[in-house]
Amino acid sequence: xxxxxxxxxxxxxxxxxxxxxxxxxxxxxxxxxxxxxxxxxxxxxxxxxxxxxxxxxxxxxxxxxxxxxxxxxxxxxxxxxxxxxxxxxxxxxxxxxxxxxxxxxxxxxxxxxxxxxxxxxxxxxxxxxxxxxxxxxxxxxxxxxxxxxxxxxxxxxxxxxxxxxxxxxxxxxxxxxxxxxxxxxxxxxxxxxxxxxxxxxxxxxxxxxxxxxxxxxxxxxxxxxxxxxxxxxxxxxxxxxxxxxxxxxxxxxxxxxxxxxxxxxxxxxx
Length: 270
Fold this sequence. Notes:
Helix 5 (119-140) links the parallel strand 4 and strand 5. The chain is α/β, with parallel strands linked by helices. 42% of the residues lie in helices and 15% in strands. Strands 6-5-4-3-2-1-10-7 form an eight-stranded parallel sheet. The mean pLDDT is 96. Helix 2 (24-34) runs parallel beside helix 11 and helix 4 (84-98) runs parallel beside helix 5 (119-140). The protein contains eleven helices and ten strands. The protein has a single domain (5-267), classed as TIM Barrel (Alpha-Beta Barrel).
């Protein structure tokens, strides 16, 4: 039996911004109803649980959910030296929250900046940030992974950019959190990227994308999920695979969108 566990991420609600008027409990209810085993919460979506990890653990347990990972990102993407103290304080707070749970894991969002001007300096700054948080995490017993994205302002999209960042942060112990949709939208071959860095993979995000770069419910785009799951299982991966959804369906009905994804993953036998 596979050791891979399937969880769900909160971005389907987070992307609505202030238009989302619900609570973390509403999201947990939707995840449990959809049949996920665990929840990955962005720090910004924790609400009243943000400084109450024990209460959050109880809320998860009451719904038969496990804590998959804590996610922390910044709109400034960790690439601006002027934001170092502010962003590091946020990362440390996230580390303390994650440290309470079994197999604690913190995912750091992809490096971003409004422009690619002075790209090398910005990329190096982000690398230093990732490495420092990974070292702090190691001291606290929390594993830290880097989650590159392909949204506007991303500094990490191409094969070379992924390779450079992962090489620059290897000594710190930072792991890799591949995201299927972002890898493909960045112009990379999904399996080539995952296989190239398989030894660093400690957390996985799955979402689908169309040939023209639009988001789609899982199974309705071009990502080869069966091959991905088979490769992870073959490598003995025993971490979380977390579904994340930001297609038009997620704008219309986040709870329905995550259920569609869970049904698709179940159709693959996972």
